[in-house]
């Protein structure tokens, strides 16, 4: 049985920070952030936005894009490393806000940026096994990337959610059964201690851990795929490669490493062809942790000028700590038109820029978000209103 992505939805905050402005405020050459890290803008959520609101907005877009009713969803999993509660999952709030069936199985997954991929693989197996009985899975990756103000990680923040409708009618991307390679290792490269809102990271070590995991997962994929040895670089079997994107330059480093493993003497030469289109949207949003690789996939499908129908795409998901997976899918006829119709680039261009003092105020206010009293003038359209009697309240 086929299984894969039937529809996708993306949500980002309405506000962002220009990285060149941030660089100047920090006394750094703008080129370091914009070219050196490969990020132009990073999404910054205001105080009425959290993991739940982002997840709900992305999920609604995915359902509407597929013309799917909430009743059709039999499994909802939210992958996140920005939980809003130790016990109640983000997925329960999303179920309530979207009006999903009481017969839907719902929960949350966590493994840093890999949490969404873990949920996706589980959903694919649920569909392939026949347990879904025609119902669809809604997999949502939702996060707010947050490092301390003034730290090296600060320019690699971002926020957003990507929702994927997974079914046996994968109108966007049919994921190839059995063609997946996993690499996991207990490392301390990036973590978010329970007592801190900000992530802690051993930055340069995390880059090395990512590359080691890419190598391990890529080798495991090659063994699992067991395809006949061919001419040329192995990765030329893919029309595009989509890497986890904590910042654009990391994808460039990843690609260089992968092509070197392939024995390519000019490992950067294929970067624009195989990777460039996947970075258009991420460079405007920053790191969205669990959703980063899926935002890159949406970017590929909405910006690639060439017809990818019937072509294979390689996907690399990395979660610090760590667990990584390299897997692949085949682009379906009409997929690019469907994703283009979401108007993602136009949506990004309608956001409002925050000045650096405004951004710093938002960062301070977000420290106390969880105890914020319910605001009187509450907005509508999946907004966090505040907390009353220790319960989070959301506007529908
Ligand atoms: N013009 C152009 N480029 C410039 C420049 C200038 N004026 N000044 C510096 N650069 C370049 C540097 O040469 C460097 O490029 P290379 O990596 O190609 O050498 C780049 O800008 C960055 O410079 P530094 O390495 O000196 O930057 P840094 O030490 O301040 O920190 C970082 C970079 C480690 C990525 C840091 O931002 C960080 O810790 N980020 C968070 C961790 C992270 O994202 N890790 C990624 C792997 S882990 C993962 O993927 C999971 C996840 O989502 C977190």
UniProtKB/TrEMBL annotation:
<dbReference type="InterPro" id="IPR013746">
    <property type="entry name" value="HMG_CoA_synt_C_dom"/>
</dbReference>
<dbReference type="Pfam" id="PF01154">
    <property type="entry name" value="HMG_CoA_synt_N"/>
</dbReference>
<dbReference type="InterPro" id="IPR011554">
    <property type="entry name" value="HMG_CoA_synthase_prok"/>
</dbReference>
<feature type="domain" description="Hydroxymethylglutaryl-coenzyme A synthase N-terminal">
    <location>
        <begin position="3"/>
        <end position="167"/>
    </location>
</feature>
<dbReference type="Pfam" id="PF08540">
    <property type="entry name" value="HMG_CoA_synt_C"/>
</dbReference>
<feature type="domain" description="Hydroxymethylglutaryl-coenzyme A synthase C-terminal">
    <location>
        <begin position="175"/>
        <end position="260"/>
    </location>
</feature>
<dbReference type="InterPro" id="IPR016039">
    <property type="entry name" value="Thiolase-like"/>
</dbReference>
<protein>
    <submittedName>
        <fullName>Hydroxymethylglutaryl-CoA synthase</fullName>
    </submittedName>
</protein>
<dbReference type="InterPro" id="IPR013528">
    <property type="entry name" value="HMG_CoA_synth_N"/>
</dbReference>
<keyword id="KW-0808">Transferase</keyword>
<comment type="similarity">
    <text>Belongs to the thiolase-like superfamily. HMG-CoA synthase family.</text>
</comment>
<feature type="domain" description="Hydroxymethylglutaryl-coenzyme A synthase C-terminal">
    <location>
        <begin position="270"/>
        <end position="369"/>
    </location>
</feature>
């Amino acid at each position: 049985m086929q299984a894969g992505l039937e529809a996708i939805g993306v949500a980002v905050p309405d506000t962002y920070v220009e990285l060149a402005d941030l660089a100047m405020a920090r006394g750094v050459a703008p080129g370091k952030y914009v070219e050196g890290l490969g990020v132009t803008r990073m999404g910054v959520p205001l105080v009425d936005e959290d993991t739940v609101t982002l997840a709900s907005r992305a999920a609604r877009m995915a359902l509407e894009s597929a013309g799917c009713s909430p009743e059709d969803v039999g499994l909802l999993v939210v992958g996140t490393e920005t939980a809003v509660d130790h016990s109640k999952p983000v997925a329960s709030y999303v179920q309530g806000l979207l009006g999903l069936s009481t017969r839907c199985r719902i929960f949350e997954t966590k493994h840093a940026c890999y949490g969404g991929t873990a949920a996706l693989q589980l959903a694919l197996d649920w569909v392939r096994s026949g347990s879904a009985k025609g119902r669809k899975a809604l997999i949502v990756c939702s996060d707010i990337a947050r490092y301390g103000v003034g730290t090296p990680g600060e320019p690699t923040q971002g926020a957003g959610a990507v929702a994927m409708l997974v079914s046996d009618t994968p109108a966007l991307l049919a994921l190839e059964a059995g063609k997946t390679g996993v690499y996991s290792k207990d490392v301390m490269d990036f973590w978010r201690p329970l007592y801190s809102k900000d992530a802690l990271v051993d930055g340069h070590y995390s880059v090395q851990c990512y590359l080691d995991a890419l190598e391990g997962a890529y080798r495991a994929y090659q063994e699992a795929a067991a395809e006949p040895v061919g001419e040329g670089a192995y990765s030329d079997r893919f029309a595009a490669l989509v890497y986890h994107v904590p910042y654009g330059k990391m994808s460039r480093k990843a690609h260089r490493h992968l092509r070197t493993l392939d024995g390519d003497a000019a490992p950067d030469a294929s970067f624009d062809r195989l990777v460039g289109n996947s970075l258009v949207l991420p460079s405007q949003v920053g790191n969205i942790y669990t959703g980063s690789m899926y935002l890159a996939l949406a970017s590929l499908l909405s910006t690639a000028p060439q017809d990818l129908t019937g072509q294979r795409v390689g996907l690399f998901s990395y979660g610090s700590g760590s667990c990584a997976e390299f897997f692949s899918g085949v682009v379906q006829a009409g997929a690019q038109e469907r994703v283009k119709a979401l108007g993602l680039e136009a949506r990004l261009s309608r956001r409002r820029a925050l000045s650096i003092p405004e951004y710093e105020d938002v960062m301070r206010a977000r420290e106390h978000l969880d105890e914020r009293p319910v605001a009187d003038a509450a907005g509508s359209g999946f907004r966090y209103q505040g907390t009353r009697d220790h319960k989070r309240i959301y506007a529908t």
